[in-house]
Amino acid sequence: MSGKTVKNTITGHTITKPDPVDEEVPFDGGVMITETDRYGIITYANKKFRDMTGYTKEELIGSPHNINRHPDMPKEAFRQMWETIKRGEYWEGYVKNMRKDGRYYLVIVWIKPKFDKEGKIVGYIAGRKIPDRQKMNEALELYKKLKAEEEAKGLSAS
Description:
The chain is of the alpha+beta class and about 160 residues long. The protein contains four helices and seven strands; from the N terminus they run E-E-E-E-H-H-H-E-E-E-H. The chain has helices spanning about 45-55, 55-60, 75-85, 135-150, and strands at about 5, 15, 35, 40-45, 90-100, 105-115, 120-130. The two termini are about 15 Å apart.
């Protein structure tokens, strides 16, 4: 096991993330939706998301959304995402995610903030689309470079 863990804020259980397995599980499109609170804790995960990630509803609800973050993803990609959505803006990007079994899937993720009556952000909703393979490969090459730069600076994935 990789030793990286996430803690479920509802159950209190700690989930150890798997070591990555270099095998893609193709995303067929479907409707894969999640919702989080404003801190990125999962409040809703539809069946397609649960099936694709391999996590149960009980494991997901209350866990940080980075439960399925692949270690190949650079911190910079998510820093930019958080800056955008915290401003109340729509974000879309190419993402390599990791399943509970360590295999990966590739998606375009879109995230929209959810607002209360006063216009304050109360959470986020995210969906996934099938990525264009060439653009996804270009993104993965960029992520390799960014990840190497982060490792050279002593930063590690969370």
